[in-house]
Specification:
By secondary structure, the protein is mainly alpha-helical. The protein has a domain of 81 residues. The chain contains five helices and no strands.
């Protein structure tokens, strides 16, 4: 997620209706809609975890434990970082965009972790 700003710049953060037929296009690797949605859901979960780790890492730089409860310190850089992450598209929107634009590679594995050939 190091180049997050450039990667997500052209993605519309608003939700919009999707054509189900686009998920089943012949260029996609998914055999059915449920498989496509499963791939998107797993990618969205990975993105969500990565974004959370990245945000927490950036905000830890500003972590200060005040001596008193009433003492509140505002840091403009911290606020800007938080606002940037709030404006990012939802991880599901990002994952759907990646799937529909053939940016995801995935493979099927069995319970032991061996690749399943189709």
């Amino acid at each position: 997620m190091s180049d997050l700003r450039n990667k997500l710049q052209n993605i519309n953060p608003n939700l919009k209706a999707q054509d189900i037929k686009a998920f089943m296009d012949e260029s996609k690797q998914a055999d059915n809609i449920y498989e496509a949605l499963n791939v998107i859901a797993k990618r969205a979960s990975l993105l969500s975890n990565d974004l959370k780790i990245e945000l927490n890492g950036k905000l830890e730089e500003f972590a200060v434990t005040p001596d008193r409860i009433e003492e509140i310190i505002e840091n403009k850089e911290q606020i800007e970082i938080s606002k940037f992450y709030e404006r990012l598209p939802n991880p599901t929107v990002i994952a759907t965009h990646e799937f529909l634009n053939d940016m995801l590679d995935y493979e099927h594995r069995d319970a032991e972790g061996n690749k399943i050939e189709k």
